[in-house]
Design goal:
mainly alpha, about 350 residues
């Protein structure tokens, strides 16, 4: 599945929704943004049909999309336009042209033109086009006025065809408590679950958090651990942090401090401040890992740079030895690639 940038952050929406009911928000980082389609590398012309393996569904190879994936955007555009000449209702070709205009690949970037193509394809039933148009409408774009209701309508079109990211975004929207809206936790939980079953790993993460907090569904720590593990295994950084904490505490899963530290190190290296803070504490006291005040100071500095200050760590790492200061500098430089 092609994944595009999420417009709303689940954690922020949940925090706002919980605040609306005077409930505490979960201590989680926002789910990672979904990367944009088509980080293209220049490629050559499409290969002949005989060079491509046959599709399992018997349909002919999609030369236009294949060229787009390889970064040969001009060929992709021309091939998509040729297909529309043959079939003016080729929704997939329209969606691809919309993506090309949205990315400014082989043409001048234009969200307005992209939205026009997405809308044409959406009206013909293409779920990816509906999703992309919904993303543009949700926050507004250059030449595309913000239209929350219009965005929701497009997401619902895509979700009706089980589009994972559309289901996820509808779940986030269900938690929105801005402008006097009342969050619907139960609806959000079910949408996140549907998104997870459709393959959206951020949905698995979000559903796991709601199970843990008992928001929209009965609290179930064991089931929460199941979904957060899936998110962690899929590389969702926030899921790695949440599942690591559950592993460390033996919450809903067999206690495994070593496994927890392994996950926290991965998340810390990816820039998650909560993981960086937890790792710093472990190095400061020598739990699971060997006590190392230079590493404790380094990871604390990364967490602080990301906005997570910790006075107890500041005090603990205030008096490094000359050797520890040298190693601290080396660790920081190695981490940031200086």
């Amino acid at each position: 599945m092609t994944r595009f940038a999420l417009v709303l952050a689940f954690a922020l929406a949940l925090i706002r929704a919980c605040a609306a009911q005077n409930a505490a928000a979960p201590n989680t980082a926002a789910p990672p943004a979904i990367p944009a389609l088509g980080a293209g590398i220049p490629g050559g012309p499409a290969p002949p049909a005989s060079a491509l393996p046959p599709r399992a569904d018997g349909k002919p190879p999609d030369f236009a999309f294949g060229a787009y994936q390889r970064g040969n955007f001009l060929f992709a555009l021309k091939e998509a336009e040729r297909r529309l000449d043959d079939n003016p209702k080729d929704a997939a070709a329209m969606t691809l042209i919309g993506a090309i205009y949205h990315d400014g690949a082989a043409v001048s970037r234009s969200d307005l033109e992209a939205s026009r193509w997405y809308r044409l394809a959406s009206n013909l039933g293409d779920p990816q086009a509906a999703y992309e148009l919904g993303v543009l409408l949700l926050e507004g774009a250059d030449g595309v006025p913000k239209d929350r209701d219009g965005a929701k309508e497009q997401f619902e079109r895509a979700a009706a065809k089980n589009h994972p990211a559309a289901l996820y975004n509808l779940g986030v929207m269900a938690l929105d408590s801005s402008d006097g809206r009342k969050p619907d936790f139960a609806k959000a939980a079910q949408l996140f679950l549907r998104a997870a079953y459709a393959g959206e790993d951020d949905g698995a993460y979000s559903y796991g958090v709601m199970l843990r907090e008992g928001k929209g569904v009965p609290q179930d720590i064991v089931e929460s651990a199941h979904w957060l593990k899936r998110a962690a295994d899929a590389g969702i950084v926030a899921g790695q942090v949440e599942y690591a904490i559950m592993l460390f505490n033996g919450e809903g899963v067999k206690k495994d401090e070593a496994g927890a530290v392994k996950l926290l190190k991965i998340a810390a290296a990816k820039g998650n401040p909560i993981a960086q803070n937890r790792i710093a504490h472990l190095y400061a006291v020598g739990r699971v890992v060997e006590r190392d005040m230079a590493k404790a100071a380094a990871w604390n500095s990364f967490a602080k740079a990301a906005g997570l200050a910790d006075q107890s760590l500041d005090v603990a790492t205030a008096n490094l030895t000359p050797d520890e200061r040298k190693r601290f500098t080396r660790i920081v430089r190695d981490q940031i690639g200086y």
